[in-house]
Amino acid sequence: MTEHAVEELRAQASRGDYVSMARLAKALYGQGLTTAEVLSECYGTGFPEEFFVLAADRLTKPRLMVDLTGLPWRLCTSPAEGGPPMAPNALTGEAERDVFARDPDLAPLVQLLAPRETRENAVIGYRITDLRAGGTAVFRCRVPAAHEEEIERCGESLLGFLHMHHLEYLRAEERIRRSPGNWGFGAADRESVDGIRSLVEGIEALQREVGRIGP
To answer: Residue 148 pLDDT more than 80?
Structure first.
């Protein structure tokens, strides 16, 4: 693809339109750019190390208690893996568009699967301006996004937030398992609790990989 054609795709790309971003990413991969370089070109800023550690891990480990958004994760699909899919994430696409319309500076990363006790529906993301300043903080936006609601800072890093979220999920499941009413279909059992505990341990391993916590 010619440089002129790539520039046209760059001009057309919008985070409010997943397909336009996927087309740009595919063209950039075609120029030999790395995943980190592709993300930087698509978003106008680099992403923290923790993001790429989790991006590499996302296809090989048990599913976390969140839904990964289509952007930016699908843009991390290298040509060797088939390249970025041309279809948005059916699970989170509506929420992503909703958040973009509310505040284009927020780049959604995950939509929460909340503990059964809360049923909170929210998206967690980086702020583009914060990333450009070298930050790694994450922010919470409830969905559907109401313009009068504040978008709250909720953690110093994505992995830190995910660790806290999964600990809360684990404690909630443990409470439900101990409850006298925990029986029948859908009841929390030892296997489900141990499964969430293993996710907590997996996140802690990723934190150690990027030097967030000690051994």
So the answer is: no
